[in-house]
Amino acid sequence: MSLDALKSALPDYAQDLRRNLSAVIDDSELSAQQLWGTVLVTAIAARSPIVLRALAPQAKAQLSPEAYSAAKSAASVMALNNVFFRTRHLLSDHEYGGLRTGLRMNVLGDPGVDKVDFELWSLAVSAINACGLCLDSHEQALRRAGVDRRTVQEAFRIAAVIQAVGVTLEAEAVLEDE
């Protein structure tokens, strides 16, 4: 399934999603690497096989092998970090914050692509996984690197749309089976 097929698969009641999907991909001001890396990481984080099958081939065609691998690494490490840090943050016992994490996250030090791109992808995954602590951390790193708010917002706009497309299409697949 291609991007166009993905848009066509959206039901009529989700026509706004169809338009939003076109807008965040076709009208993005992000670089091609930032855009397609964000699309890939959010397709992975959305946990929708339909969306991932549709968008991963196009992302792979648009990204260098290094960037494709780095984007998958961002999705993987943020799946870990978002659960860990969100949980530690939500616990009322703040002593957990002083404990060593004991988790390997070496890819954060050397992601294989520009750190700004990796931070942008990490922020997008954190938006889907609803980790406020990670969102703040990645947003602050991006802002320190000189990235403007519109670019940061573009990453979580993509995350919101990809997540919504996944939820909608997965629900439709289940409802069709009834």
Automatic annotation (TrEMBL):
The UniProt catalytic activity note for this protein reads:
N(6)-[(R)-dihydrolipoyl]-L-lysyl-[lipoyl-carrier protein] + a hydroperoxide = N(6)-[(R)-lipoyl]-L-lysyl-[lipoyl-carrier protein] + an alcohol + H2O
Isomerase found in the keyword field: no
Q: Which InterPro entries match?
A: AhpD, AhpD-like, AhpD_core, CMD-like
Gene3D superfamilies annotated for this entry?
AhpD-like
Q: Where is the active site?
A: C131, C134
Q: Could you list this entry's UniProt keywords, alphabetically sorted.
A: Antioxidant, Disulfide bond, Oxidoreductase, Peroxidase, Redox-active center
Which Pfam families would you find in this protein's record?
A: CMD (PF02627)
Domain Carboxymuconolactone decarboxylase-like: start-end pairs: 99-177
Q: Which cysteines are joined by disulfide bonds?
A: C131-C134
EC no. given is 1.11.1.28
Keyword Phosphoprotein applies:
no
* Stored HAMAP family: AhpD
Tell me, in a sentence or two, what this protein's role is. Answer: Antioxidant protein with alkyl hydroperoxidase activity. Required for the reduction of the AhpC active site cysteine residues and for the regeneration of the AhpC enzyme activity.
Family designation: Belongs to the AhpD family.
NCBIfam families according to UniProt: ahpD, ahpD_dom
Subunit annotation: Homotrimer.
Read off the PANTHER family from this record. Answer: ALKYL HYDROPEROXIDE REDUCTASE AHPD (PTHR33930)
Entry protein name: Alkyl hydroperoxide reductase AhpD
